């Protein structure tokens, strides 16, 4: 062998270790930590899955699954194999949860290398200490975790695969789907909507006073009548109390002064659900956005040219933090805030539920010394906001309690008692960084004067206030996550997906951030709850989550859990399929052209619309985006059809009379004689001042905003944002426009340099 050949042999010798991660985003961060002796490559999530068009598991052979390589991952698998064969060691570093464990196992199954070369590592944060420790303390793949994830996957596939055809048959829509967890989440939203609709407001009153002690004023509220909690049901009762208190004979005497100092302790650092809720209420982030931004902070941000993982893993339901994190937090608090801000004993948190899945650490900053302000320049605005939230929450969780001084004054007024109270922060403690409360503590300087028992005070003002009880609020994304967690439904890795799916399927839509069930969603929910009570039951679904936990903890056998579920489930499915009847979804709208009920239908492309129940005699269809116009066409008593406005326009083809109708894209004109149709464009009747030939008509921008422009466009480009009244300005001669303000309706000049303005008065009579 030649010297050259020897050199080549040495060069080709396996020298590097291969680390396979889920996401390429974290590759740079890990590479920087481990150095040149390691190659980092990503699997880009799952590489294998159950096949799409069949169940993918054999129910007659202990539910053994058959996995196939995801088509778009074939090149990834080939590359991973090529790299693995050239490496001495392969470390599977997918995420530290069940899903990550399953991904590691699937990758291992596809690697054509000996078992002794493959190791599983996991780290809760991408820091030098955590990553190097993981490499030094590698382990084998935890097959119990894998079986738990596999069982969840099979259950979800089974429920979706068997329940969805029931919906197809009953609702005639092959785009519908049911899911083991998503359908229960839909039920929560639908039931909340039913509560809101059934809610009957109850009137009640409160009575507020302004009290005076030697010229110092403070507020007090009536709270008792003859020693018992008072309920004021109507204005008549409120006025009687007011009269009683205003009676010159009524004396106001301080009955009791209570002063109490309490300690308010900080709450635990974030877990997935509490982070999602806080990001929603404090930052306005949706659940998916929160997780996307957190993922980036976890995987690594470039700081001075070096990728740095800034937070620990963000899918967790554990409030535990490591000893190292405790020490780092303690050092930072002592160095930056002083001894009084650190508690006498370290704050340790536990979660009430003991069978916590994948109990790693809570969500916290990887490096507490990296304050939000110190790295702000490296972060995008949303990243900075979320990192600041996580950092402040964690640091506050390790700080001393706040001390609050509370003062309560009980005032006797004959048969009635009044209460005044306030609180003041004596020592801010953890509140220096983070406050869980929606509102800050009231400041005692709000000013209850120094009072003693027996002091006389005067009543300067009495204000009865009317109130009505409120229905429960609709769920938003954050409150739905809280409800799912409280019921034990879903896990940190599934919350965002659940919420996304029910919206994608058009079962739920967002209105002012609230989740509102659609007619389709409510119908689907009703069918599922009626026919599959167990699957849609909260306790049953939570119980199944607990069984998955037990599989991961070696306390249950995966295929036995599946067998116990499968037999009764399939009995119900088969029974329902035999008797399933077509279901019609009636809307609360009437057809504008014939007055019959409009039905919710779905096109072959999955778009929902309203179609007349009189089809095929009446072919009217309405886009759900045009329900406002449909409402304009309805009205009268008991939903009676209202005539659409008459149109003074003749058909261009035959000269016949044109009538207005409502179609899928809004209003249109149709000839009574020949059926010719044309789009309806509302004219203001005002002549275009620019070209002198056209008329100003109502238009919509590409973003849906209404404006007014010349109908001779593009020849004439004259346009206005507000509707012209037809009058001209007496000062400059330009068109006057209609403007609505909180003070009424006005005419203002279209010439921005002219300040003319006058009120439009409603006609008398």
Placed side by side, the strands forming the largest sheet appear as 9-10-16-15-12-17
Fraction of residues in β-strands: 15-25%
Q: If helices are DSSP runs of H or I spanning 4 or more residues, what is the number of helices?
A: 18
State mean pLDDT (0 to 100 scale): 86
Number of strands: 34
* Main pleated-sheet profile: 6 strands, antiparallel, barrel
Which structural class is indicated by helix and strand composition? Answer: alpha+beta
- State the share of residues found in helices, binned by percent: 25-40%
Query: What is the overall silhouette?
Result: globular
Rg calculated over all Cα atoms: 34 Å
Which parts are unreliable, with pLDDT below 50 for 5 consecutive residues or more?
1-14, 354-358, 438-445, 632-642
- In angstroms, what separates the terminal alpha carbons? 114 Å
Describe the structure.
This protein is an alpha+beta fold. Helix content is 32%, strand content 24%. It has 18 helices and 34 strands. Strands 9-10-16-15-12-17 form a six-stranded antiparallel β-barrel. The protein has a four-stranded parallel β-sheet with strand order 2-1-7-8, sandwiched between helices. A hairpin with a 2-residue loop joins strand 32 (735-741) and strand 33 (744-749). The model is unreliable at 1-14, 354-358, 438-445 and 632-642 (pLDDT under 50).
Provide a concise account of the structure shown.
The chain has 765 residues and is α+β, with helices and mostly antiparallel strands.
